[in-house]
Design a protein that fits this description.
mainly alpha
Length: 187
Amino acid sequence: MTSLLKPAVVDSINGQVIEEFTASLQYVAIAFHFEAETLPELAQFFHAQANEEHQHAMKLLNYISEAGGKTVVPATKPVKNEFETAEEAISLALHQEIKVTEQINHLMDIAIKENDHLTRHFLQWFVNEQLEEVSSMSDLLRVVKRAGEANLLLVEDYLARNGRGGVEDYLARNGRGGGSRSMDIPF
């Protein structure tokens, strides 16, 4: 098949695959930290996030393949496995989402520069997804800060009452799909 993608676009997307797989493994590490702390709802939240990041990497690889480019399944970057506090772990996750947002924006810039409308259209999904990711992680961090390290069971309760994603589910149920900056948190 003839490639519909320019080499600069393929190389950049393959580079992003590294970031998505690394993010997935970072979330696995955070999930197991929370499992070790007997915080199953936070663990479940981050296992789900890990799965989502893995799916993002696969979506990127499938796009390259379908468009006739050469995929590269990379080694990942090292991840952090030790955390002193829940706030530290979730802060790391938030900073990672902000970094990925910047990287996705950079990919979009490359697609624009290369006049690659197909890739621009494809990447718009990721642009929208990053709004949700940063928003939900930011909200979760605020919930953890509000509860405090000594009251993480309140965070567990909050996540349990609000379903798999807690923060994301709450926003979706209340018609605020990830862009909310205020939440009615019960504690």
